[in-house]
Amino acid sequence: MAHKHGHWKERIQFANAEDKQEFSKYPTKAGRRSLSRSISQSSTDSYSSAASYTDSSDDETSPRDKAQVNSHGSSDFCVKNIKQAEFGRREIEIAEQDMSALISLRKRAQGEKPLAGAKIVGCTHITAQTAVLIETLVALGAQCRWTACNIYSTQNEVAAALAETGVPVFAWKGESEDDFWWCIDRCVNTEGWQANMILDDGGDLTHWVYKKYPSVFKKVRGIVEESVTGVHRLYQLSKAGKLCVPAMNVNDSVTKQKFDNLYCCRESILDGLKRTTDIMFGGKQVVVCGYGEVGKGCCTALKALGAIVCITEIDPICALQACMDGFRVVKLSEVIRQMDVVITCTGNKNVVTREQLDRMKNGCIVCNMGHSNTEIDVASLRSPELTWERVRSQVDHIIWPDGKRVILLAEGRLLNLSCSTVPTFVLSITATTQALALIELFNAPEGRYKQDVYLLPKKMDEYVASLHLPNFDAHLTELSDEQAKYMGLNKNGPFKPNYYRY
Amino acid sequence: MAHKHGHWKERIQFANAEDKQEFSKYPTKAGRRSLSRSISQSSTDSYSSAASYTDSSDDETSPRDKAQVNSHGSSDFCVKNIKQAEFGRREIEIAEQDMSALISLRKRAQGEKPLAGAKIVGCTHITAQTAVLIETLVALGAQCRWTACNIYSTQNEVAAALAETGVPVFAWKGESEDDFWWCIDRCVNTEGWQANMILDDGGDLTHWVYKKYPSVFKKVRGIVEESVTGVHRLYQLSKAGKLCVPAMNVNDSVTKQKFDNLYCCRESILDGLKRTTDIMFGGKQVVVCGYGEVGKGCCTALKALGAIVCITEIDPICALQACMDGFRVVKLSEVIRQMDVVITCTGNKNVVTREQLDRMKNGCIVCNMGHSNTEIDVASLRSPELTWERVRSQVDHIIWPDGKRVILLAEGRLLNLSCSTVPTFVLSITATTQALALIELFNAPEGRYKQDVYLLPKKMDEYVASLHLPNFDAHLTELSDEQAKYMGLNKNGPFKPNYYRY
Amino acid sequence: MAHKHGHWKERIQFANAEDKQEFSKYPTKAGRRSLSRSISQSSTDSYSSAASYTDSSDDETSPRDKAQVNSHGSSDFCVKNIKQAEFGRREIEIAEQDMSALISLRKRAQGEKPLAGAKIVGCTHITAQTAVLIETLVALGAQCRWTACNIYSTQNEVAAALAETGVPVFAWKGESEDDFWWCIDRCVNTEGWQANMILDDGGDLTHWVYKKYPSVFKKVRGIVEESVTGVHRLYQLSKAGKLCVPAMNVNDSVTKQKFDNLYCCRESILDGLKRTTDIMFGGKQVVVCGYGEVGKGCCTALKALGAIVCITEIDPICALQACMDGFRVVKLSEVIRQMDVVITCTGNKNVVTREQLDRMKNGCIVCNMGHSNTEIDVASLRSPELTWERVRSQVDHIIWPDGKRVILLAEGRLLNLSCSTVPTFVLSITATTQALALIELFNAPEGRYKQDVYLLPKKMDEYVASLHLPNFDAHLTELSDEQAKYMGLNKNGPFKPNYYRY
Amino acid sequence: MAHKHGHWKERIQFANAEDKQEFSKYPTKAGRRSLSRSISQSSTDSYSSAASYTDSSDDETSPRDKAQVNSHGSSDFCVKNIKQAEFGRREIEIAEQDMSALISLRKRAQGEKPLAGAKIVGCTHITAQTAVLIETLVALGAQCRWTACNIYSTQNEVAAALAETGVPVFAWKGESEDDFWWCIDRCVNTEGWQANMILDDGGDLTHWVYKKYPSVFKKVRGIVEESVTGVHRLYQLSKAGKLCVPAMNVNDSVTKQKFDNLYCCRESILDGLKRTTDIMFGGKQVVVCGYGEVGKGCCTALKALGAIVCITEIDPICALQACMDGFRVVKLSEVIRQMDVVITCTGNKNVVTREQLDRMKNGCIVCNMGHSNTEIDVASLRSPELTWERVRSQVDHIIWPDGKRVILLAEGRLLNLSCSTVPTFVLSITATTQALALIELFNAPEGRYKQDVYLLPKKMDEYVASLHLPNFDAHLTELSDEQAKYMGLNKNGPFKPNYYRY
Fold first, then answer.
1. Structural domain that includes position B282
2. Name one GO cellular component term (chains A, B, C, D) (predicted).
């Protein structure tokens, strides 16, 4: 079984491939309430027919052992099969249709090439959506080298399409851990080219450069990091005084947070439950544990579809909000016997205990929208008196001696990562923020950013939002001079104080 | 246009399997506004892991050519593979958990065996849910022989499980048309056993008996018919004075209608769109054509998830309801350029024309929730200047010469039959109604029912509903004597006049 | 204390004026589930500043004792004060703005004067809205004489405005019962003019003509009746074979029913509760007794504003709908201790008993949206151990010996009649239906209508709806010839079968 | 524009009583987006039957000229009429029922008397709700002297009830400005008693002490300020280095903000529109200008009741939220012709201009939920060609030469202050926060608070919330030791980082 992540000498053992797959999303303490929702392997598969085509190939040769050349004669890449480029191009074109913010960024910034001179080394999921980002960076003047942040998530045909157009990509689906670090190394360590910008998702690339090529940081103008984990690592570096370049925390930008949590969960909870269980929502008794943004999104959707929802909370302020929003606030033990569905969104551990699982009624569905795989005490279910029956992918029936079945989804891992897809529109917001962060750091006058971790300037948050408004045919109102003066605002924003709660 | 219900000599060719699959659901004029939403092949597949197991077998021998015996030594059945019985049993047990109304019917009526003496020949989809119905009928005292109403919809392992317990089942997935009628014939034409009740879905069984064994009707106490098509045929027979036994129209019972249309569409529109396109609903501009029950269900769900919905209507009363419910009422041509999604729910034809398809914006999704495949003028899209690209199962991109893509779902056929599943709970309501209709007809004193088509008595509608209330832990209030007297009602119902609009 | 209604010799005793005021709305058995929601005295007051102006006059002279002449020299009327005509005209003009359906009816039908020759005697509430109706009838060619159906509800200045333009009106606010019948008599019994149409609201006018001037019916082409009570009387007459002219039941037309119940209650429950108690809805635990149209309207609104709503039902079908709509279905006794608000919408009696009132928590609000004043057992609260404290108009605190207070609204009478207003738009629908019913009956070819009670033809229901669509800027779609043929419909409707449930 | 806060020598003239009434709520720049929503005169009236009783008295003698003594023999107060104490007591008791948080605070803190030794001088609206606060402070050990922050808002009978129990109150409804400052002076400047805490609403009391008795600040441990205006003044003092004691900004506490804006507006927009116009919401086209918390609250309620809502925004982030929440984002000029209702919630000026008013359709309703009276350019309507017609209290018809009427509510002032009421529950949250702020400042160890403006510690925010949960019968979950450790949280909170967006 493949193992990724961690330095060779500090290897970590993973129980199985699925845990592995979520590795880079283990939220740490610092980020526990703002979970990153990246695209996962399973979701990728489900919306890529080409992927299944390419995966069915019987080609077992390691890409590292193949000699491949693109149509321009370059061999500075390593992908599964360069011949899949055409399929990948189609995927990219489809993604472009929902990522018009990046396309318009290309157009707006094209004249000035704000990334002319930028040499970006990137380590992200390699999907059609990332390809749109990478090609946008190129269009803005950057040179890019790219590798995957996850050994399973690469869309091979997309990697091929990028390689075909001349972006040195080193990634394929199903890398070994050795492959993983080899790919990163091939991105960074190349003759005659030295990165001056880093775009990272998870912090592995940054970690590698720190360990192996610290001198690279002399030229690097900044790091842009997207994940909770990576951001946490950066804050730790900063705290330890070891961060030697400015870094931009993209994960916590307002638009990303709201979309990744409230709105995205509003949509994905229904999808995740339907795809796995074909449940009818009307009249179902549901308890949602936790009424943060994730919980709010879940509750809104479920209530709207006719479920009868109650919530549990530890925080009286969130509890008061739940009351005002029309949800009963209960203790889990008070209602557990009656519930048809139990959903955890707390970011905590053991929110659903074995004792509560024992008290659930027959047919109760249990799933987790919150925090990796800690919220439901799944381990407690792996005991001899209980029978596990896998009835469908991501769906287990846990059977009690008396015949009672509890339906556990995704073995307690994140439901929406495992069993639903992330809309391209959400990925577009993240990608646009990443592009703007790179532009900002690359072009910032010296001294604007120190060796610290920054949030994107508010005005750029607003710019990201404004680039996405055309998707909705939304028309912004402009302040008149008189109004701007009255409000004490610049007509172009920012429009709110930093402490504003959207 | 192809019609199925011919006999051998009027055989028809089907363009392809998918048309076939829906053929028994072509709504006729009479039923056009209350479309039957039965389980489809695709939905069956998606929730039956066992089915895919059995389908992957390479066994190409026709079941008709096999000699099979169940563990009790009987060979009075014809299924794909009797050895799959165990898998089928598990599927049935899972279905039982969501069909507690039938289970409680078994319990309540068990003592008296209200179907003792009943000999029921049935022709329905053969799925886990129908199996629960059949086994309920048996538990109530009936003898049953069963066949499939659709050549594709049989769950082979369920058929095997039924055959194993002694129910003579004649059905498998992928029958030829010849097989289809052969199976029906084997059900009806058996030595030493003559049906006295018919349970039909689509009218083919009834048709067969009329054509081949009219004398059977001398003993038949009644027909119970579930589908729009079958009911239409019965009304035509009745009108022509040819209906020679009482028939019960199960399709138009209140509970079935409300669940099949309003509530079921409320849930399935989201599911169908998500599974095919991964669309984000928030902020999407959607036009729903038609504001009947189906349209109301779609609009409710889409609005709740943040879509901006407008509707088109021909009927001023429905239009006024749409206004009061907060939807703009527009003509399609007025808004077509701005729409992200177009959904037809009218029961009419050519609601979306080629001219309107030409004016849609790039990326517009078009689908049909209403009426077979007539609502969108799909034929007009099969012209040389347009390119069709199948991007996923049930998803086509139609590409205009200028590169514009319109995303057509299920080739204009019913989205929720093709791309989502029907909750077991809805099927439970139908099955319970069928069981009660059989009991009613079988036990009715002579003279209560003439040679005509009847709706289930209101009190039985209420009984069906009451059997499903425990699923929701709902507690009915009982009238006091004084209140019943004041209202002029019997304490046990019926509670509403016949003309009441729920 | 004034007494109205009933023939002098069959006088009925009323407990007090407020009961009196609702008298004509006592639903009878036949109509008990479709309660008429007419404008009430209190609601009239609250939206008429002019009314309060005129009411404050100290003029105690009976209108019957005054000699008044309008500016055209006519004295064929009897109103409070003809000089208030100008104020009344303004009220009428304001009402016209929200009754554009009638205005457009005037325009559309003006050329042909469909009521030319009609001599209509009317007995309704006399308000600005009715005035718009009356003046529409006149514009369509009719001659009208008018009187009030309620001794309290007349807007004096509106009556004056009508009298000023030449409509013989006999009505004022605060009539004695003797006045009431005198006014009716003056309308009917006038020299040289004999009514050929009757428009009634409550049946008193019809009753009077039957009793005193039966010969009038020789010329009468039809009766149009709006109220539950009046319609009930007509059905009784019909059943008894005593109905000697066709009658049109306006009360049960689809548009009126839906607006009067579902939509109107959706709006008025919030208004009624707020105006009386200033309650904050968010988080309130509410039980709604009865999930018919009235209950559905209440529940929708309360849930939307953040209340936590559960319902009680006797009918399993409605209970199942409540479940699917996301409401817990409970017995009142199970939840009564926790509730903040109890609302009755059943049409039954003693739904809230003294025992339940005893168990309510301190501060619980109790009110009735359903049926006159029978639903809450208010009588049981008039016992010595309880203290009543009137804290505001229509708001009583009932105080238990331990200090617990229950807040009773409108003494258990209809909350929305007593404590909120009826939108002019709803009255417009009723008035338009009345006008069309008159046109239909007056112009119907002989033989179309027998001596029976009829509902408005479906096509006219649709016409009423269509006349109200411009208020919403709604644009109807028209069927193409091809589509109409396919559907088997006339392009101009009717669009639905009679049994259709909107 | 008039400003109140001058002292005698800088006296200002008020245009009329209504301007006066709102003057202490003029938001200043700093606070413009978080408008304080205090109780207003009109709202007070509407829920106090006693008030109207007492107001109808013909007693024109100035309270300053009366000699009054309470039943304990004290004359250290000045109220309208001490004999009204009993009526006031009933009002206070009713208010107590909805302010159980304060009652429970009394109970919880009673043993320790956390305000023993506190001498609080207060200047707030004097209403039943404030009386509950004052009596809570007394129960916690404080001595209080009190005056009114608004010359119109005092409930005379409540002032009397407080005076009767021994609280020196100096306030009556309808003070002159001279009275206003005289009352403040009598509170502060009293022999043998010197305040050590200040509770202010608007900053007038604080201002007075600064100007006249600066030495008082030597003993004052802190100021608690509730209003936007007062808080703004404190920040200015602080900035200017003139703040000589710690001050607590109660206005910006999380619970107050959320309730005053989102939730409170969600409820009051419907109430304000209904009470003034009896509008039916269903199908109405509404544009809401501004999608901050106030706008969000308005939009949620209106959409839920069937209105068709679009919004205008200047801020792309809020605009994106509006899109995701299902509202079209438009420019006002694009839609103004079609709208039935226009609502401003921006905090800006001239959002609705004369040009837009000219383009509105007949019957359009215009009102302001946002910012004092600047949002609608009402001044532009006071021109000779337009006719104003007052049709009801707070409702004007502006009539164009062609007869078009625009319905202007509250002359463009805040609709919910003028035309609806503030729920006691919201006032309870504010009052509880004030009490806790006083306890915190009074008991804080020296050095915890400097001469600066503070927000209430997060933990106390949570405590305020927790005190209000019993109103909803909400049950908080407690962290286990293990969970608390895992989350790095104290089991008693605070539960969120300071930057958390609820």
1. 262-419
2. cytosol
